[in-house]
Amino acid sequence: LPWTIPPEEFSKRRDLRKDCIFTIDPSTARDLDDALSCKPLADGNFEVGVHIADVSYFVPEGSPLDKVAAERATSVYLVQKVIPMLPRLLCEELCSLHPMTDKLTFSVIWTLTPEGKILGEWFGRTIIRSCTKLSYEHAQSMIESPNEKIPEKELPPISPEHTSEEVHRAVLNLHGIAKELRKQRFVDGALRLDQLKLAFTLDHETGLPQGCHIYEYRDSNKLVEEFMLLANMAVAHKTHRTFPERALLRRHPPPQTKMLNDLVEFCEQLGLPMDFSSAGALNKSLTTTFGDDKYSLARKEVLTNMCSRPMQMALYFCSGMLRDQTQFRHYALNVPLYTHFTSPIRRFADVLVHRLLAAALGCGELPDLEPEALQKQADHCNDRRMASKRVQELSTGLFFAVLVKESGPLESEAMVLGVLNQAFDVLVLRYGVQKRIYCNALPLRSYHFQKVGKKPELKLVWEPEDTDLEPVQQVVTIFSLVEVVLQAETTALKYSAVLKRPGTEGLLG
């Protein structure tokens, strides 16, 4: 295998191998698409680089490899494994930006002020040599210890040309700029709907889930996200400026009107001061309406869940096939032009965007695709992306059902997000799953549905546990906090949620 970069590539590319460049990824990642660099300049500004694996170099247009990648269109991430878009030799070896190895990349390099204002921008093919592979945890500990040296044993190996202090300083500088970029994005009207996401720990031998936790989205994740967004927007503008008829862009239509109107009415009935007039207004409502106590945070989770329902999928499209440029907009990011450039190992759309960018810079052929053909490929990428998202959700659901079966019953607090006349829906807060609880499955003496004003509620009367005791009454309405038990059913890998009788103490742990 030992493939080496052909000598002629060095004359065609900017050589960045001496720069302090590193990757930040999940600790288990093997397909490393992106690397970052941050050099302080004498005037107090920074030279910041986003360096992306140059997949299009290895996947020539029209080759058998290209056809398979175009058909697959995306890697699929299941709980226990990845089904890659490209052969493993490419996605885990040749393209992946492993440390201390010369790699072919496509870079966007900016001159940025400490506040994230762009003073200069450069695009081009490059060669890098990443000096270390940081996990999000490594980067997070650097962010949280700005003035302390991190012990070498707690860090991955760093190439001898660079020091851990140099990497630490670069991470802190990137974090400082990312915070400013993020703050400005939300001031400019962006929206983020963070839904609870489950992560599993698997048994090394059986591969079965041993436990799970809600994935924590931290400053190190935000750091990477900000620079990926910046690169994607920069490439969208560059390719669209050069090829107004055949740029591959990504648009996000506004929410579905009817569903949004229903949600507006629902929030008004509950007396919630939510503003749905724009993405930014909605984001502001979600971030300012709620306090930091447990109940407020749970209400925010439930409302975030409700707000995500009217949202539409973001879509790839060819700029020449959509006459109305206002439809190019990305609703959630609240920007006029956006694309995907930063993950070509796992998304075919990014490979097409790389080819367009290379053509725009005069260092590659313009893809042999008319707008109609590019749109057809965009549609296929959209279909595959939706299918892969669904499969990932099903994979998570399957593993969680196995966990309930093997380790259950599991207890958790839950918050009610919908009330029907014989059942109600809850968001199980410890696990981020939604379940319906049926009244006829509970040991109730009676239950009664009514609307108080426009607010639906169920009045439950529990059978007393002892004949000497009075029946226990419980009112279930939207935003009620309740205790639930998740237990396996006899049917294969199904589980149900059962409401705990009020007043029964103690959680299973």
Automatic annotation (TrEMBL):
GO terms for biological process: miRNA catabolic process; mRNA catabolic process. GO terms for cellular component: P-body. One of its GO terms (molecular function) is RNA binding. Pfam families: Dis3l2_C_term (PF17877), RNB (PF00773). Residues 13-363 form the RNB domain. This is DIS3 mitotic control-like protein-like 2. It comes from Mustela putorius furo (European domestic ferret).
